[in-house]
Write a structure and sequence with these properties.
alpha+beta; Alpha-Beta Plaits; 5-stranded mixed β-sheet; globular
């Protein structure tokens, strides 16, 4: 169950970071990140989506301003992340990732069409994404994730 508080202003923060995880451990570490994030985020009404691709993370966090900034502060100190850079931050009219306290997805070759639309297929550089492009990428991934969950349920 996702806890969403309507009493505080909604804030969204999108960042990119470089992974400090051995490729052979990536799936286990992402699983650990998601499990801890679901537990922690539920308590403070934070929702979001984490994308892992070619040695980088791109993540959106949404919720009350203080909770989002505190969550990002913990992430920026996490040894699994380095070179964290905020791509966008500020008030949001509504949640784009309200379905999950945290969800993670690794991009696969089947997802290359998304990167093509952002001219990022051949050399993925999340630090070069504009705020608009980063949200476009994450909302496209959100759609893939929803479809994947629906197929698994059906």
């Amino acid at each position: 169950m996702i806890a969403i508080s309507g009493s505080k202003s909604l804030h969204r923060l999108v960042y990119a970071s470089r992974q400090r995880i051995a490729p052979c451990d990536l799936d286990d570490e992402i699983g650990a990140i998601v499990r801890a994030s679901i537990r922690n985020n539920r308590e403070v009404s934070v929702t979001g989506l984490l994308l892992a691709h070619f040695g980088h993370f791109v993540q959106a966090l949404e919720g009350p301003t203080e909770a989002v900034l505190s969550t990002y502060g913990r992430i920026s100190q996490d040894p699994r992340h380095e070179d964290s850079k905020i791509l966008a931050a500020g008030p949001a009219a509504s949640r784009l990732f309200a379905d999950w306290n945290m969800c993670a997805r690794r991009m696969t070759p089947a997802d290359d069409a998304i990167l093509n639309t952002l001219s990022q297929r051949d050399s993925f550089d999340p630090y070069a994404l504009s705020a608009q492009s980063a949200l476009k990428l994450l909302t496209a991934v959100r759609g893939i994730q929803r479809n994947t969950q629906l197929r698994a349920m059906g």
